[in-house]
Write a structure and sequence with these properties.
EC number: 6.3.4.15
Shape: globular
Oligomer: single chain
Structural class: alpha+beta
Catalytic activity: biotin + L-lysyl-[protein] + ATP = N(6)-biotinyl-L-lysyl-[protein] + AMP + diphosphate + H(+)
CATH superfamily of the largest domain: Bira Bifunctional Protein, Domain 2
CATH class of the largest domain: Alpha Beta
Keywords: ATP-binding, Biotin, Ligase, Nucleotide-binding
Number of domains: 2
Pfam family, one: BPL_C
GO molecular function: biotin--[biotin carboxyl-carrier protein] ligase activity
Bound molecules: biotin
Number of helices: 5
């Protein structure tokens, strides 16, 4: 699966609600699509999401792709969808932690509709899960979501939603959380071409970001859609903060603010930051 587009043909293939207006650019190479759109946010050049407007930037290659928690995100040229969507909205700071989960839920649902069995791991991982239940533990990291924001004048926020999805397997070995990488080309039931994958994700994420009631939509996605997509729920996990294991327990789901609940012998603990590593057969 190879990702390479020109803006005009991608734009022509999109089915968007009539009020949605996209400024779409597809580039061969950039540093980071998230960094580019955040720069636009800093200069007041992201469009108005209340009016249904968004910027979408897709790159075939990134020189300095960004992952969560200051990590880098690497992908071979054309091997992954590398995309950011940017807009300005009014969003209470208390909901920023829940937004990546809502984005993940929307992206996972869009990919499921294309036949890939995609689930989620807190806070931002897209997982590819084998369809056969007896192989459900042969899960891999398909991609990730990186939401970055920039406070603007008034109570407006520049919101940049980045997503990376592997079409082909990357060269890298393990990913954060100890999972092997996975790619859409491995999902037997997903025969959609790269253009269809891209269009489905642009349509779904644009629709989310211009929702008139964005806070209510985030809330509903996190509380109602995320649970069915939550791969970790009920499984043994190890919580890692600052490189150290801080808790062994059982993932117990997500709160409305995006916090992960983990149950252990010491009771229930909420996490708003850190990594959640799955433990299979007692191993990390
Ligand atoms: O798993 C993660 O830590 C999040 C990865 C997010 C990667 C995407 S690729 C497009 C966008 N631009 C970036 O620099 N990062 C995000």
């Amino acid at each position: 699966m190879h990702f390479r587009f020109d803006s005009a043909s991608l734009q022509a293939s999109l089915r968007l609600a009539p009020h949605v207006r996209l400024e779409l650019s597809c580039v061969e190479e950039t540093g980071s699509t998230n960094a580019d759109l955040l720069e636009r946010a800093r200069h007041g050049r992201l469009p108005d999401g209340d009016a249904g407007a968004l910027s979408v930037l897709i790159a075939r290659q990134q020189r300095a792709g960004r992952g969560r928690a200051g990590r880098t995100w690497q992908a071979d040229p054309g091997a992954a969808l590398l995309m950011s969507l940017g807009t300005t909205r009014r969003l209470h700071a208390g909901l920023i932690g829940a937004l990546p989960l809502a984005v993940g839920a929307v992206a996972a649902s869009a990919l499921q509709q294309l036949g890939a069995n995609v689930m989620l791991k807190w806070p931002n991982d897209l997982l590819l899960v084998p369809a056969a239940p007896e192989h459900a533990e042969r899960v891999g990291k398909l991609g990730g979501v990186l939401v970055e924001t920039h406070a603007l004048a008034g109570d407006q926020l520049g919101i940049v939603v980045g997503i990376g999805v592997n079409g082909s397997l990357p060269q890298t070995a393990l990913t954060p959380g100890g999972l092997p990488p996975a790619a859409l080309c491995e999902a037997a039931a997903c025969t959609a071409p790269a253009a269809a994958v891209t269009a489905a994700l642009v349509e779904a994420l644009a629709d989310l970001l211009v929702q008139p009631d964005l806070p209510g939509t985030i809330h509903t996605l996190v509380l109602q859609r995320y649970p069915a997509l939550d791969y970790a729920r009920g499984r043994p996990v190890q919580m890692i903060q600052g490189g150290a294991v801080v808790l062994d327990g059982i993932a117990d789901g997500i709160d409305s603010d995006g916090a992960l609940r983990v149950r252990s012998a010491h009771g229930m603990r909420r996490f708003v930051q850190g990594d959640c590593s799955l433990r299979f057969g007692g191993q990390t």
